[in-house]
């Protein structure tokens, strides 16, 4: 069985490849820049979402494909469609996609492209599994570093909660689906076991820093201005504020237990995941 992983040199993809090396047959890293795949320990093939002609060769002989969503916001739908069409041509019998929480029914700022991709996959006729990953704990490493430097964590999420897990947790879920049976046609809402608040996040940052770092909730305008003043580009600041607004609305609060069930263990606690992320950042 040949399993092809797109985006295999990304931070999630590398975890998936490492997990599959221990549990699967032939693993192929399908990547835009093959030179960056040195050291993965698997076969490497060129696969550029923006050059569909590379995808046919990348998927040749594939039984399963993991489509890790691209990072080019605004371009992902045509990119993902090219991957799905290549999977069709290759006769892939199981396509797994990393989506967003409740992608078909949520105001989450990231959801529309994921919803459109899910629709393309369903229409393709290729047997599929949708992995709707909640937020990655590692995404808060920059905010933690900034909070430690500033002495406070600033945000505009109010009392909203985030059921995050680590990339390694989500990767383990993908490995379980790719190496297991009976997952076709299923949509998994994957999350950490605990939905934490930003007061909780501040408490964990405080524990890691060895001093009290409170969470200060501010208005969206104040949040945006604070981020820009800290050197965050305006577009990125706008995204962060929109995401906090979504969090305040409850879009990332669903701690489902599906991920722990897939991987056969509890998900990584917030403090442990954040501590590792701070070391790597």
Automatic annotation (TrEMBL):
Any Pfam family matching the protein: NAD_binding_10
Gene3D superfamilies xref list: NAD(P)-binding Rossmann-like Domain, UDP-galactose 4-epimerase, domain 1
Keywords (A to Z) from UniProt: Oxidoreductase
InterPro entries: NAD(P)-bd_dom, NAD(P)-bd_dom_sf, NmrA-type_oxidoreductase
Listed EC numbers: 1.6.5.2
SUPFAM superfamilies in the cross-refs: NAD(P)-binding Rossmann-fold domains (SSF51735)
Enzyme type, top EC level: oxidoreductase
Domain of life: Bacteria
Full protein name: NAD(P)H dehydrogenase (Quinone)
Species of provenance: Amycolatopsis endophytica
Lineage start: Bacteria, Bacillati, Actinomycetota, Actinomycetes, Pseudonocardiales
């Amino acid at each position: 069985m040949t399993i092809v992983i797109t985006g295999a040199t990304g931070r999630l993809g590398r975890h998936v490849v490492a997990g599959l090396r221990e549990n699967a047959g032939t693993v192929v890293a399908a990547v835009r820049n093959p030179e960056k795949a040195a050291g993965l320990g698997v076969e490497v093939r060129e696969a550029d979402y923006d050059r569909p002609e590379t995808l046919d060769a990348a998927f040749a002989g594939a039984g399963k494909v993991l489509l890790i969503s691209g990072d080019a916001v605004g371009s992902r739908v045509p990119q993902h469609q090219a991957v799905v069409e290549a999977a069709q041509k290759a006769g892939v019998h199981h396509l797994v996609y990393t989506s967003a929480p409740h992608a078909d029914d949520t105001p989450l700022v990231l959801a529309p492209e994921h919803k459109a991709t899910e629709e393309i996959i369903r229409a393709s006729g290729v047997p599929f599994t949708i992995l709707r990953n909640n937020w990655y704990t590692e995404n808060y490493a920059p905010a933690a570093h900034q909070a430690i430097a500033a002495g406070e964590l600033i945000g505009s999420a109010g009392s909203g909660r985030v059921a995050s897990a680590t990339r390694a947790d989500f990767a383990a879920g993908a490995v379980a689906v790719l190496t297991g049976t009976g997952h076709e046609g299923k949509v998994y809402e994957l999350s950490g076991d605990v939905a934490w608040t930003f007061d909780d996040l501040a408490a964990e940052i405080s524990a890691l820093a060895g001093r009290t770092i409170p969470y200060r909730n501010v208005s969206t305008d104040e949040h945006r201005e604070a981020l820009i003043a800290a050197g965050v580009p305006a577009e990125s600041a706008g995204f962060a504020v929109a995401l906090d607004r979504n969090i305040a609305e409850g879009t990332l609060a669903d701690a489902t237990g599906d991920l722990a069930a897939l991987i056969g263990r509890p998900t990584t606690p917030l403090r442990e995941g954040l501590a590792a992320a701070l070391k790597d950042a």
